[in-house]
Amino acid sequence: MRFQRSKPKYGDDERILPLINVVFLLLIFFMLAGRLAASDPFKVDPALSASEGPVTAQDILVLVGADGRLALDDSIMDETALKVAVAERMSKEKNGGSSPHVRLKADGRAPATRAVAVMELLRSAGVQKVDLLTVPVHQ
Predict the structure, then answer these.
(1) C-beta atoms surrounding 119 within 10 Å
(2) What's the whole-model pTM score?
């Protein structure tokens, strides 16, 4: 007696089609729902630099726009409000035991004197060290 092999109900392509559909649905879901990085409140093109430093988690991010606007993290503010907000955050963190990292991201088209003035403002708010964020030059 010979057994005859029965043909499978589905071909190889038909069996993998539901898996492909699920993968594409997950891809679309994460593209719509996910956010990779927070965007700045205004466009900032940092200055170029020949040195590279390690990137770590940010505690305080101060932005200086090409037109001189200032922002702390995601909030646009003037110099007085920036000084008060940074001083408050510095005092909270110092009471917690660690000093927060302060990063300054200044637009490359902004005058250097504006960046220096913001650094002075940060120092008067109690900041000891400021990391200036730049874009590395690739040669």
Answers:
(1) 18
(2) 0.58
